[in-house]
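Weekly modeling sync, notes
Attendees: S.R. (lead), two postdocs, one rotation student

Agenda item 3: backlog of single-chain predictions. S.R. asked that every request posted to the team notebook include the full sequence so nobody has to chase files. The rotation student volunteered to paste the first one in as an example of the format we agreed on. Action items at the bottom.

Example entry:
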Amino acid sequence: MKDLFETSGKRSVCTWTSSALWVIAPALLALIVAGCGNKEQAAPPPSAPSTSAPKQIVTETGVKMVLLPAGDFLMGDDGKEPDEKPAHKVHLDAFCIDAYEVSQASYEGLMGRNPSKSQGPDKPVERVSYYAAVKYCNMRSNKEGLKECYDPETLACDFSANGYRLPTEAEWEYACRAGTKTPYSFGKDPAALRDYAWFKDDSDADTHPVGQKKPNAWGLYDMHGNVAEWCNDFYGQAYYQGSPQDNPRGPASGEERVLRGGSWRGTAESCRSSARASEPPGFADVCFGYEAYGLRCVKKAPQAP
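Predicted structure, as returned to the notebook:
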């Protein structure tokens, strides 16, 4: 199983058992930002990466999201872990992503319970299995009258549905990088991570309310640290070697699901934009990592009629 955190510079087998601004006219930007709501508007065309944040919108359930237009980026890192190689070009369609990790208040409001160990309405929900994360996505879709993305029996994801789902691993990294090619969304220096992330060196061994640190250039908070975020993909150590260029969605099957972003108990290395981790979807064989597993949602950008 792919480890999520590191201890003394090495992967820990027991602690974690899991084996720009786009070149676009201001008037057009104003039009596409509204596309994350329930109004059907055209998705933006592919454009060049930038370092400016799109505007945020608020969904019917009060969640802030950001619309990321279609674009290309370099996924992975040739100089790091074997499963991050090779660095390869990926093209993604436009999508909307939560500006913040799902809070405990949001989760409990839909699910009727709060599984978190470290409780607080504004803290990210944690101790969430992949199955629970998928159910939350469907519940949120239902709340807004959208089509569910996940089949409740098979967990198969309908990417054509207009409801909420977990991000693909490629979508997550694209959103995290925010147009950058450096190890972190803010640059190369891990010493600056304290400004952007709650991780091992500054978290006091606990989660913290979402959105307290600096966002990345696209207005997304806690992409590094706080809680590790479930992705839709099955984990495949060698998947990048044969990954499709357009909208990759991971292996067709597997025993584990991907987690991204590091967490409050992870090292700076584990919080890198390209760092990969995985875990069985129901925590089968986990030591205590689940106390740092959370999520954020995405949804497809509405298309023109």
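Discussion: group reviewed the output briefly. The radius of gyration is 18 Å.
Action items: rotation student to repeat for the remaining queue; S.R. to check formatting next week.
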